[in-house]
Write a structure and sequence with these properties.
Blueprint (H helix, E strand, L loop, with lengths): L1 H21 L4 H7 L1 H19 L6 H9 L6 H7 L2 H32 L18 H6 L2 H19 L2 H6 L1 H8 L2 H11 L6 E3 L15 H5 L4 H6 L16 H4 L13 E3 L4 H22 L5 E8 L3 E7 L10 E5 L9 E7 L8 E6 L3 H10 L10 E2 L10 E6 L11 E7 L4 H12 L8 E8 L9 H13 L6 E7 L14 H4 L2 E3 L4 H11 L4 E7 L2 H12 L7 E6 L4
Parallel strand pairs: 10-11, 10-14, 11-12, 12-13, 14-15
Antiparallel strand pairs: 1-2, 3-4, 3-8, 4-7, 5-6, 5-9, 6-7
Helix pairs in contact: 1-3, 1-6, 3-6, 3-15, 6-8, 8-10, 8-11, 17-18
InterPro entries: Cyt_b245_heavy_chain (IPR000778), FAD-bd_8 (IPR013112), FAD-bd_FR_type (IPR017927), Fe3_Rdtase_TM_dom (IPR013130), Fe_red_NAD-bd_6 (IPR013121), FNR_nucleotide-bd (IPR039261), RBOH/FRE (IPR050369), Riboflavin_synthase-like_b-brl (IPR017938)
Organism: Daphoenositta chrysoptera (varied sittella)
GO biological process, one term: superoxide anion generation
Length: 565
């Protein structure tokens, strides 16, 4: 997908480059600036397109509406919506690449405007005189100054978006990324300068035409004796009513100019590209603010092993589908910062409670945990916190769609989780516990890989309850549970009598993915299986590769991956 999009942008760059290189209306400007004109305008066209589309994947409400509505009935089309984050990143990378080209081209243009100053076309020149310092064009004009500031803003946004900074200090990423609004405002000012101009009177003045009133006076040498006999000839123009001999003027090589060339600045088109998506994004942000301005009621907080916190809450008129996620905002933790978390429990017709599991791995989650728990160093046992206390205000924005909503729409699904990546599947398992017969799903392969044995206790009760329920309904083959402990010092098991069903499904080591896929394909011949993964990129890449590979059983695997927008 990334290769296709970059190829499309290169094609657009090439088409625009040829337009400015061969277009007659840019003849005189091209003579002055050379290839700098073509490169700057071609890169600008690519930037307009990508600055227009980069905001659309961030319109979460729109994506959730399209996914949940019948307007997008095709499963394949809905899977494209799951590429929203990938598309956003691809557009961002494209903006960075072509911004470098755009800046380099305009640096050359500023130099050429100064060195190639032409007194015949004063209105075409951006410089005021020949040899003017090009730095004045960069620092003393609206396009130049706004361009420099935009480069600095874009540099901050790009560097803070790297994986290392996002992991080490998410606050830097969040705050710098919100500079996009400044970038867009500067972009609208940037195109208002009208530095580059095109010729408007091509019919009256074809580029390179013959001007009898000007060219002859400049290029023909009049004999001195002839000048003395006809002193007015050298200063007067050709009479307009005097017919010029046809063979002398109009031949196959030269056309006559009827007037001087006229130049006009381009109409600023950038705001037409970005105003629509920018307004849509702002309207959605306003809608989300209104929808989430009422805090939720936290009913309980549970401290799980391995630094995992479960928060259960209720909110009026809150509805969600299994697999969706919400964005939590706690003003006492951070006035502006918020984070997405997958729902592990969805409200139903019988209960209004919904919940999330969050792993304490950063500053935000650490401060949030300290505010929720009475003491920051809690015991590792699963202890409900029913003590009466005032929890901090917590606002919930959402829910928003994710690819895991599709897991119930396949006849057979393979769900693979790595560590805390099990959270999207928890809401699906909870939904199946309430009733599975109303869904298309008839067989679920659930693979969960963890580093320590205690992590399985996050949802051990849920897995055992669902397993026992399916056995009572005579459907033990409905779910196939496989738990993998990747790191161990010896024989391990989940402590507790009620977890015997899980202990028999606990394996030491890592899954042998190729054998696992072959076995699933053999048991589900000529079927389409949905593959869902939420975990480390290494596992994701392996599953993606195996899903795309063919097998001898006619089974087709469709790959889906969790990706927060």
């Amino acid at each position: 997908f990334q290769f296709f999009w970059l190829s499309l942008n290169v094609w657009l760059f090439g088409k625009t480059f040829l337009l400015y290189n061969q277009g007659l209306q840019y003849y005189y400007l091209h003579q002055m600036l050379g290839l700098g004109l073509c490169v700057s305008r071609a890169s600008a066209s690519v930037l307009n397109l990508n600055c227009c589309l980069v905001l659309l994947p961030m319109c979460r409400v729109l994506l959730a509406f399209l996914r949940g509505s019948q307007k997008v009935a095709s499963k394949k089309t809905r899977r494209l919506l799951d590429k929203s984050k990938t598309f956003h990143v691809t557009c961002g990378v494209t903006i960075c690449i072509f911004s470098v080209l755009h800046v380099a081209a305009h640096l050359v243009n500023a130099l050429n405007f100064s060195e190639n100053y032409n007194e015949e076309f004063v209105t075409l020149n951006a410089a005021n005189y020949r040899g003017e310092d090009p730095r004045k064009l960069l620092f003393a004009t609206v396009p130049g100054l706004t361009g420099i500031i935009m480069v600095l803003v874009l540099f901050l946004m790009c560097t803070a978006s790297t994986y290392a900074i996002r992991v080490s200090n998410y606050d830097i990423f969040w705050y710098t990324h919100n500079l996009f609004f400044v970038f867009y405002m500067l972009l609208m000012l940037h195109v208002s300068g009208g530095v580059l101009k095109y010729q408007t009177n091509l019919e009256e003045h074809p580029p390179g035409c013959f001007n009898p009133n000007k060219t002859l006076r400049q290029n023909l040498t009049v004999p001195k004796a002839f000048e003395e006999l006809f002193p007015d000839y050298t200063t007067e123009s050709f009479p307009e009513d005097l017919p010029v001999p046809e063979p002398f003027v109009q031949n196959s090589f030269m056309r006559v100019c009827s007037e001087e060339p006229k130049f006009q600045s381009h109409f600023p088109e950038t705001w037409l590209w970005i105003s629509g998506p920018l307004c849509l994004y702002c309207v959605e942000k306003l809608y989300r603010y209104i929808r989430s301005n009422k805090p939720v009621t936290i009913t309980s907080v549970i401290s799980h092993p391995s630094n995992v916190l479960e928060v259960r809450m209720v909110k009026d008129d809150f509805e969600a589908r299994p697999g969706q996620y919400v964005i939590l905002h706690c003003p006492r933790v951070s006035a502006l910062e918020s984070h997405p978390f997958t729902l592990t429990m969805c409200p139903t017709d019988t209960k209004a409670t919904f919940g999330v599991h969050l792993k304490v791995v950063g500053d935000w989650t650490e401060r949030f945990r300290d505010l929720l728990l009475l003491h920051s160093n809690q015991d590792t046992e699963i202890l409900p916190m029913f003590q009466q206390r005032r929890y901090p205000k917590l606002y919930v924005d959402g829910p928003f769609g994710s690819p895991f909503e599709e897991s119930l729409n396949y006849e057979v699904s393979l769900c693979v989780a790595g560590g805390i990546g099990v959270t999207p599947f928890a809401s699906i398992l909870n939904t199946l516990l309430d009733g599975w017969k109303c869904y298309k799903l008839r067989r679920l392969y659930f693979i969960w890989v963890c580093r320590d044995i205690e992590s399985f206790r996050w949802f051990a009760d849920l897995l055992c309850t669902l397993h026992n329920k399916l056995w009572q309904e005579n459907r033990p083959d409905y779910i196939n549970i496989q738990l993998y402990l990747s790191q161990t010092d010896g024989i391990q098991k989940i402590i507790g009598e009620k977890y015997q069903a899980l202990n028999s499904r606990l394996l030491i080591g890592r899954p042998r993915w190729k054998l696992l896929f072959d076995d699933i394909a053999k048991c589900n011949r000529r079927k389409t299986i949905g593959v869902f993964c939420c975990g480390p990129n290494k596992i994701s890449k392996i599953l993606h590769k195996l899903s795309n590979s063919s097998n001898s059983y006619g089974t087709r695997f469709e790959y889906n991956k969790e990706s927060f927008s």
